[in-house]
Amino acid sequence: MQSGQIDALINTYAMSKERQEKFTMVGPYIRPTFRLIVGANSKVDGTEATLLGKAIGVERGSAANLKYANATFSNYATIQQYDQINDAILDLNTGRD
Questions:
Q1: Structure pTM?
Q2: What residues contact 16, with CB distance under 8 A and at least 6 apart?
Q3: Exposed/middle/buried for residue 38 (C-beta within 10 Å: 0-12, 13-18, 19+)
Q4: What is the Cα–Cα distance from 93 to 38, expressed in whole angstroms?
Q5: Which residue from 31, 62, 78, 84 has the fewest beta carbons nearer than 10 Å?
Q6: Is the pLDDT reported for residue 76 higher than 70?
């Protein structure tokens, strides 16, 4: 947009004060839905008791996911950032829950 090559942008783009000073933002246009994915045989059911001491993977660069994970789980679980969500899924497939 700053180069003038496009007129509008749709993306899951965090609305920061700095960005609001540069651009007019309309929205949010979506409300994120968060899902907890665990291995097929995992005993984790999303409750604090089953997540205590566990590591929860979040894709790096996803401000909404990281904010939600920190606000919801950081008091009793470790938040682990991954460059790509597929890397987190690979960890699940190797038996981590």
A1: 0.67
A2: none
A3: middle
A4: 9
A5: 31
A6: yes
Q: Between vectors from CA 12 to CA 47 and to CA 82, what angle results, nearest 5°? A: 55
pLDDT band for position 73 (cuts 50, 70, 90): very high
CA 15 to chain centre: 15
φ, ψ for residue 22, nearest 5 deg: -90, -30
How many angstroms from the chain centroid is the CA of residue 76?
A: 18
Q: Please tell me the distance from the alpha carbon of residue 75 to that of residue 95, in angstroms, as a whole number.
A: 24
- Phi, psi of 30, deg, nearest 5: -135, 155
Q: Where are the domains of the chain?
A: 32-93
CA 75, 80, 81, 82 torsion-angle sign:
negative
